[in-house]
Amino acid sequence: MESSTKTQLKSIEEMVKTLPQHSLSWLKGKVTLYNYQGTWCNRMFLEGVNSAQQSFKARPSDVFLCSHPKSGTTWLKAIVFAIITRQKFDEFNTPLLTTMPHDCIPSLEKNIEQILENRHNNSCVTPIATHLPYNLLPESIRASNCKIVYIYRNVKDVIVSFYHFLCGIHNVPIEDAPFEETFDEFCRGISGFGPYWDHISGFAKASLERPGIILLLKYEDMKKDPTSNVKRLAEFIGYPFTPQEEKQGVIESIINMTSFENLSNLEVNKNGLQKVERLIMPENRLYFRKGKVGDWENHFTDEMNEKIDKLIDEKLGHTGLVL
Ligand code: A3P
Question: What is the largest CA-CA distance in the chain?
Answer without folding.
Answer: 58
